Amino acid sequence: TNALGELTLASASSDSETGGVSPPPRKKYRASVVEGAGELGAAIGSAALSTVVGILTFPNSPVAPVIRLNPHSVAHIYINNMQANGAGQGQDSELSCLNNSAQNGEPSSAGGAHTNVNGLSTTNNGNSVSNNVGIPAPAASNNAVSSDANSVKKKKRLSQSEEDVIRLIGQHLHDLGLNQTVDLLMQESGCRLEHSSATKFCNHVVEGEWDKAESDLSELKALMHSPSAIVVSPTVLQLRMKFLLLQQKYLEYLEDAKVLEALQVLRAELTPLKYNTERIHILSGYLMCSHAEDLRAKADWEGKGTASRTKLLDKLQTYLPPSVMLPPRRLQTLLRQAVELQRERCLYHNTKLDSGLDSVSLLLDHACSRKQFPCYTQQILTEHCNEVWFCKFSNDGTKLATGSKDTTVIVWHVNTSHQLKLMKTLEGHAYGVSYLAWSPDDTYLIACGPDDCSELWLWNVQAGELRTKMSQSHEDSLTSVAWNPDGKRFVTGGQRGQFYQCDLDGNLLDSWEGVRVQCLWCLGDTRTVLASDTHQRIRGYNFEDLTDRNIVQEDHPIMSFTVSKNGRLALLNVATQGVHLWDLHDRVLVRKYQGVTQGFYTIHSCFGGHNEDFIASGSEDHKVYIWHRRSELPIAELTGHTRTVNCVSWNPVVPGLLASASDDGTVRIWGPAPFLDVQDAEGLNESCSMDS
């Protein structure tokens, strides 16, 4: 006993020096019991317990002030003593639970662990230990504090964003039919998928219980708010929702051939609302439908059932805040937006945007390789024997026309493998061909010459025949042309002040005097013609009412321009400045593109790629430059030509096909990298350098 007392004193002293009380290592005690198994172990266990009890009973003992009793020590000693005496399996298991609970700073039962050892009463509730002789309870142990911290951490309130994510996941799982998983998720997280009133309302709508659904609107009224920035009262929102419910009810009665009931809904319920009377007139007309198919067709309605009711719920939800009821398929909407944003930010994305999620992986960010981009030479067309001044793909993308100083126009056919083959050669343009324009249906092709050319040729491409050779005066200069969208008229002009509108036979329909035209374009309204002139501007001319207005004003000569398909943007090649992008509606300069070398040569740029997201231009430094429309720096510089690149044309149907015409007498066709190894693709002579 004396030896054990010294050991206990030493241990207590060590705890006192470290300034804290730590429970005795469990493994150490178990080792002692094993080594002293039998009577010796029992004696040591009893002696240790007696020593501790004696100290507690006689606080005036000289040993007592030195000891700071750990709240769990008594339990440890008692347990080990019982184990040394060979306690039964069931009792040992029970005491082990008590020991584990004490070490973890947790009560072993709902009311806390309570034990009586030779008159010593200890109650461990994670905060204090008391006895029946008036000894003050020591402070809580480190383990007990840690337990409290863990408890607080477990009960930590979720942030708003965390709750939103859980609700989004729950909605998606619910749509998949995993309702038990949703219930477990909501129960464990403490969140609510949607307001109980909204849940009840949805169930009634899906089941077609229209009277109950209408009654639910009264409960939902207090939860409604305006879905837009325009403030709308809850009463009006409730009215709109009620109208949608009654409309569905009315249509379902009609489909079931319950005409009297439908008429009652129309007269006694819908009409008294005095809302959307125009729609009520249309609904009344459905009474004349002879059968259900006729009704569904005229009403553009899916018919009675889950499909139409689900669609109705989607409309009704727009009047409820998301805290009450989530927008339908909200998680898919967010994922789709994320995918679309990544595609929009991808500098080389040049394929059709698939709005579905099945075609992409949500596990990786979207990224297009530059090898998929048209910056590798696929063909070099060498049939022209002089400078090639212009090139233009047809509107259907199946043909390419090229005009040259050698007085010929060559029409190329684009086959299914995107290879070009010579289709026809159109000859007789004495001054050379500097501009070409396809008719909207690609039946005709108009060719213009350089500044000193007063003639214009209109060819029937398929027949290879000249339909019209137009010349108003030998003093004219017809250097540019543009087709009216109706395909029956075209406008032409030049820098000597001629500006005409003609029919397909070359007959003069209208003229505008004194306009020195550099380049022309007809807008989709069939009335407005855009013309760049020698005053460094682009003006809009209306041949019907003979009015004109200024649209674009530059500080340097506009050598050429082209307009996007939607008529909103104009791409200008400005002398000594390069390529400029203008918004024609707002009449503002949007962007200046860098890199290209533009002097006083006439160079033609173009929009291209899918959705016209890209811009390409020739350059006097023998390169073709490509930009993403939103980026001022080029994303590709195509090398291979040996003299000035006069014109580029992007295939309007095949986004990966680009043509360029040069003073070196060749036309190059650019496409994605061939199916080569990475080392081979990188080593192509006509390379693509990227600066982004």
How would you portray this structure in words?
Helix content is 32%, strand content 23%. It has a five-stranded antiparallel β-sheet, with no helix packed on it. The two termini are 84 Å apart. The protein is of the alpha+beta class and 692 residues long. The protein has 17 helices and 31 strands. The chain is elongated, with a radius of gyration of 43 Å. Mean pLDDT is 79; it is low at 1-142 and 676-692.
- What level of helicity do the residues show? 25-40%
Amino-to-carboxy terminus distance: 84 Å
Q: Strand order, biggest sheet?
A: 24-25-26-27-31
- Poorly predicted residue ranges: 1-142, 676-692
Structure classification: alpha+beta
Shape: elongated
User: What number is the mean pLDDT?
Assistant: 79
How can the largest sheet be summarized? 5 strands, antiparallel
Number of helices: 17
Determine Rg (CA atoms, Å): 43 Å
Total E-strand runs: 31
* Residue fraction in strands: 15-25%
Highlighted features:
692 residues; five-stranded antiparallel beta sheet; 17 helices; 31 strands; disordered N terminus; disordered C terminus; WD40/YVTN_repeat-like_dom_sf
Explain the layout of strands and helices.
Blueprint: H1 2-18, H2 26-35, H3 39-57, H4 73-84, H5 89-103, E1 113-117, E2 120-124, H6 142-154, H7 160-175, H8 179-189, H9 196-207, H10 210-221, H11 234-255, H12 259-270, H13 277-285, H14 292-299, H15 306-317, H16 330-345, E3 376-381, E4 388-393, E5 399-404, E6 409-414, E7 420-426, E8 435-438, E9 444-448, E10 456-460, E11 465-470, E12 480-483, E13 489-493, E14 499-503, E15 508-511, E16 517-522, E17 528-533, E18 537-542, E19 547-553, E20 558-563, E21 569-574, E22 578-583, E23 588-593, E24 606-608, E25 614-617, E26 624-628, E27 636-638, E28 645-650, E29 658-662, E30 667-671, H17 678-682, E31 688-689
Helix pairs in contact: 2-4, 3-4, 4-5, 7-8, 9-10, 10-11, 11-12, 11-15
Region (Disordered): 1-27, 89-157
Protein name: WD repeat-containing protein 26
Biased composition (Low complexity): 115-150
